[in-house]
Amino acid sequence: MTPVTTLQQSTGTARPVARRHRTRTAPVDARYPYWFYLLPAVVYGVFFLVPTVVSFYYAFTRWDLFTAHWVGLENFRTFFQEQSLVRGLTNTLIYAAITSGLKVVLGMALAVLLTSKIIARGYLRSVLFFPTLVSTIGIGITFTVLMNPEKGLINNMLSHAGVTGPAWLVDPSWALYSVAFVDVWKGVGLATVIYIAGLVSIPQEYYEAARVDGASSWTVFRHIMLPLARPATATVVLLSLIGGLRSFDLIWTMTGGGPGFTSDVIASVVYKQYQAGFYGLSTAGNVVLFVVVAIIAVPLSWFLNRKEVQA
Amino acid sequence: MRNARPALVGGAAIVVSAVFFLVPFAFIFLTASMNTVQSGDLSFALPHGFHLIDNLKSVVQARDYMILTAFVDSIVVTVVSVTALVILGAMVAFVLQRRASRLNPAINLLVLAGLIVPPAVVPTIWVLQKAHVFKTLEGLMLIEIAYGLPFCVLLFRAFIATIPRELDEAAMIDGAGPLRIFFQIIFPVLRSVIVTVVVLQTVFIYNDFQNPLYFLPGDDHPTVQLTLFNFQSQFTTQYNLLFADILLVTIPPLILFVFLNRKIVEGMAAGAVKG
């Protein structure tokens, strides 16, 4: 199906161009010269591609930035044998799953609310979106204080409601989740905006048809909004998942990977190993992150986009 | 009756949004206005006496006016990187979208890779050292440009697809070369998506913490996010100063937000759905 359409497209655009070709001497592609690529290619190549490619070599070495000793799989063996590092891997997956899951559900719900006829819609959209723009470090520090177990505002409010709040960032079983909640708090505005765009682009006729058929609001949501907002869902899922897998700033500011290593993620492990001077091991951590992101994001994006074409 | 429900839902939403989103920002402002003793309580309360101005002064003077250096550094890095990203990103997207070429699949793959692949940190430091730009503002700018390009290309390409080719052809017939076609014809038409890219990348680069942490370590060239992080350990007994610093650092995004709020949301929505 796809090859046919691209073929039609390309002949469709090529034909008028070819016709003009006979009358004019200048080659048509002179308008779009390849040297426009030159500078970006150099910057991107040198500072992104080269480091990425060489990381696959240095991950197998003991390395001090000057000399590198080939040690084979030793870095990876170390990585997967040390409990603290493996914990970083599982935490990364948990963190990414929680944050992107919550952003999809809350983003969709808030978008439905904010596209319906309620008062103060503009104000609500603005308020919700603002945290996206604010410094992650600033927000991290603020919530570290708000989540203080004894004095913090959150547990204070909870105790007024008769609930004893957890020791958010201090309790090993809560730390990772607490940071994930703050991540969702900060990022849900972006997810909502993307969903709003998706919902607004659904033609009104679908709703009218459903109303004529006497569909309930739930049916409208389930059979019109949800499937037709699929491109938005794909965007939100991919963005938040990739962001979640790579996340570092918030965790590093709020817990530093602690208590112990209970909220460490791969990105914080990479930083700790780098700080400790284990450059080879740190780079191996990067390669692990690369593989994890690729294994999850590539098939997912393929799956989401394929379904989109069918619908 | 029919008008009561939207008002009711809206009213509830306002209350909930106030608790979840306005209280944290009010907390920052109130704590930044307290004296040191009161701020130690970490409580959500009106300050005893208004000390915001004094606190801001102390923050600015801390560590030999480090925050001012940091603001200059952050602004220089942000402005230069974003300018380069807009121009280079649009140039790549323009040729990529317009010219049917055998290179296209490869370039598309690189764009996708840039969006997905996490940068390899230590090898990047190694490259920066080899290029003699490690721990320099230039080095950080090059990094921000390299990391931001794929996203910019993606947004620009989607938008350029909506610009009719007849425009380029007309300019060509008038004898314009590629640079004039691009800068005088295409670039002005891109205005709305440029606003989006500028806002998104400005926010991202200004707020960036991880890249300065790795590629611009040391006190010679602090960025505001790094000073915030450093002040966190320095001011643990002076929460009023810590929050005054957060307030100070939040002002630029706040200004951007106040002026461009609507455009940001529109542009982001358009870009995200097309991309």
UniProtKB/TrEMBL annotation, chain A:
KW Transport (keyword) present: yes
Coiled-coil regions listed: none
Listed transmembrane segments: 34-60, 93-115, 127-147, 184-203, 224-245, 278-304
Chief localization: membrane
Membrane topology of the entry: Multi-pass membrane protein
High-level lineage: Bacteria, Bacillati, Actinomycetota, Actinomycetes, Motilibacterales
Feature: compositional bias, Polar residues: 1-13
Keyword tags: Cell membrane, Membrane, Transmembrane, Transmembrane helix, Transport
Listed GO biological process terms: transmembrane transport
Species of origin: Motilibacter rhizosphaerae
Highest taxon above the source species: Bacteria
Entry protein name: Carbohydrate ABC transporter membrane protein 1 (CUT1 family)
UniProtKB/TrEMBL annotation, chain B:
Transmembrane regions: 7-30, 65-95, 107-128, 140-160, 181-206, 239-260
ABC transmembrane type-1 domain span: 71-260
UniProt superkingdom: Bacteria
SUPFAM superfamilies named in the record: MetI-like
Pfam families, per database record: BPD_transp_1
Annotated localization: Cell membrane
Alphabetized InterPro entries for the sequence: MetI-like, MetI-like_sf
UniProt keyword terms in alphabetical order: Cell membrane, Membrane, Transmembrane, Transmembrane helix, Transport
GO CC terms in record: plasma membrane
Membrane protein topology class: Multi-pass membrane protein
The keyword Ribonucleoprotein belongs to this UniProt entry's keyword annotation: no
A Gene Ontology biological process term: transmembrane transport
Family membership noted in the UniProt record: Belongs to the binding-protein-dependent transport system permease family.
Protein name: Carbohydrate ABC transporter membrane protein 2 (CUT1 family)
Provenance organism: Motilibacter rhizosphaerae
